[in-house]
Give the backbone structure.
Amino acid sequence: RAPDRYANDEDVLEALLPLTDVMGTGHHAAVSAGVEAGDTAVVVGDGAVGLCGVLAAQRLGAERVVAMDHHEDRLDIAREFGATDVISARGDEAIEEAHERTAGGANHVLECVGAESSMETAAAVARPGGTIGYVGVPLGVESTGFLGTMFGKNVSLRGGVAPVRGYIDELVSDVLQGTLDPSPIFTETVDLDGVPEGYRMMDEREAVKVMVKLD
């Protein structure tokens, strides 16, 4: 619970709201991947969780954070959140560019999508002996070919459902100190009547996250 003195501070409340879900999940990806000060991290996915993963990696002190996906407007938010590099590509092209930018792969990879293709990308861009923090909900993952890639490179896989409440105290503290603000993920705002339109915008990738404000 935020102190009462912030009850009418909309900027603080908007920064706190993502902590209940996507910020905690992105943070779990970074923690699971073992990101620490001075590290290089690659974030696969530019949805709300991936963007918060960028922010989390930066918060944990990563020296270099590479954001990967193909939506330019979202990659702009990734830059705002501390991404030092963005790769606006997918598939083999994205993997090749990631290898070039990380001198052969990253020790810490955040998988924030859950699709088969994103898991393949995460496995491919991980450096031998690296770790993938996996928080993307599995969707349509029918092939496990990426496991062979991981096995061959001794890549570890950690993650799962984010224990958001376990992270909430430290994240709230950072927000209240003004050192953490994930609110830019709210790219559209609607009233209660606009909720269906908000879902449509997110479904069609016209918005990252939609905030509902009640009169």
Q: What stands out?
A: The CA atoms of residues 106 and 127 lie 5 Å apart. The first strand starts at residue 40 and ends at 44. The first helix runs from residue 10 to 16.
